[in-house]
Amino acid sequence: MYDEPSGIITSPNYPNPYDNRLFCTYLMRIHNARSVTFYFNDFTTEISKDSLEYGLGYEADFASAIDLIEGNLTTQNAIPAPITLDGSKAWFIFSTDRNIRLKGFEMVYFAGKS
Ligand SMILES: [Ca+2]
Known about the structure:
The protein is mainly β. It is built from no helices and eight strands.
């Protein structure tokens, strides 16, 4: 659980390869935050197989996902644009399939209080 006004979120083992068959949930609840912005430093996952999904609120639920990110984006110089989510609560789910492990992702976040 992430509750500090700023921080770093990475895939497990980063910068070493993540494991197979992950289902990794990240929950954020930042007191007094009006919004939270996430900046990606690195994003390298197996396309169509290992993905990061995210949404608002404090219950991670694929049905309410805002977007899904996957692929060798760092290698393609196509690191995802910053994400700004309204409110103080957000979730991410990083899920991976049974083979091909890559470097994963690193992002930093900052809460906005006004
Ligand atoms: Ca994989």
